[in-house]
UniProtKB/TrEMBL annotation:
One of its GO terms (cellular component) is cytoplasm. NCBIfam families: HAD-SF-IIA-hyp3. The keyword Zinc-finger does not apply. This is Haloacid dehalogenase-like hydrolase domain-containing protein 2. It comes from Anisakis simplex (Herring worm). Belongs to the HAD-like hydrolase superfamily. Keywords: Magnesium, Metal-binding. Pfam families: Hydrolase_6 (PF13344), Hydrolase_like (PF13242). The keyword Metal-binding applies. One of its GO terms (molecular function) is metal ion binding. Gene3D superfamilies: HAD superfamily/HAD-like.
Amino acid sequence: MSASRLAVLIDLSGTLHIEDVCIPGAVAALQHLREIPNCRLKFVTNTTKESSSRLHERLQKLGFQIAPSEVFTSLSAAKCLIEREHLRPLLFLEDVALEDFKDIDQTNPNAVVVGLAPSRFQFDNLNKAFRLLLDGAKLIAIHKGRYYKRKDGLSLGPGPFVEALQFAADVKADVVGKPERNFFLSALESLDDGKIPASDAVMIGDDARDDALGSIHAGMHAILVKTGKYRPG
């Protein structure tokens, strides 16, 4: 790893906070990272349960001094794909996340987009998605996280529901968030002071597969923290 420039990609949920509770020591650790010369930070997240603006408000209330431009989300990556391919999505997202898609045409859907949407994962909604897929709609997984950490314990992520739709309709989803290689590289390229190579970047997160292995496969280094969804072994 080069000593001249360093990019640090940091996961949010489970690494810096759990819902509205800050991980102990996270604010101080972040401040320490900002004091390292030539160290650029980017906060990367698969969080899809709220819009980018609401996520930023949450982080500010928790005491994190993070600029909106420093956050790179899987929602942003999904919207870019929808716009690029001129898709009209059936969105599995909570209302607070739909704000990011208010300018997207959702009539007569030709795509099914799945994020974390506990209130939407009901039989009738999933069956509607299944029928669209049978008719040729594209399946997009904003991410395929198996589970995530809430204050009351581990909970199902969108991954199991994506797998169910893939199995039932015999299709394969396009995944845009972590652990996809392109997600990490796009986050790295979004830094505003020029390209830093993947070999000079490190990912910090609580998910061994989506954070650590995903970033390693993208050519980066990885640090797995024992917070959030981390489980021994």
